[in-house]
Design a protein that fits this description.
two-stranded parallel sheet; mainly alpha; 46% helix; 4 strands; single chain; Rossmann fold
Length: 142
């Protein structure tokens, strides 16, 4: 989360974040995300800070999640420079999140099968990894 979402996803992003604010979705905020937010724009930092606490679950990295993130790299899902992306996926996997909604296609969305292959190999369930235009918040138009 380094800046405002791309215009291509602006409507989907708006719907997603409205669903969070309305109590339809709980997001996971990790120590990894909090470190990234410190390097983000003021707009993004304050946006996340203003989310209702009731819609935020906080998690921290553990030896288990760090080992899983390192395994994604060892299994060549992505390169070493994408360690934080791996840490996001690992934290969500270990926390048993229902899904990950990501705007990062190159290192996350387009490699969802590779992450899930590693998850299954290690006995974790598959996790839904979706772009914002495929999230349940943007597909539920009722």
């Amino acid at each position: 989360m380094y800046g405002a979402p791309a215009k291509k996803f602006s409507e989907d992003s708006r719907q997603f974040w409205n669903a969070v604010r309305n109590g339809d979705i709980i997001i996971i905020v990790s120590d990894v995300l909090e470190a990234e937010l410190k390097r983000s724009s003021e707009y993004i930092r304050t946006f996340v800070e203003r989310l209702p606490e009731s819609q935020v679950e906080r998690v921290v990295s553990t030896p288990e999640s760090n080992a899983l993130a390192a395994l994604y790299i060892a299994e060549s899902v992505v390169g070493k420079s994408s360690l934080d992306d791996c840490r996001h996926i690992a934290l969500a996997t270990v926390a048993r999140a229902d899904a990950i909604v990501s705007w990062n296609f190159l290192h996350i969305v387009d490699r969802r099968d590779d992450y899930n292959d590693v998850n299954e190999k290690m006995g974790y369930p598959r996790i839904k990894i979706l772009p914002p235009n495929q999230s349940e918040a943007t597909n539920d138009k009722t």
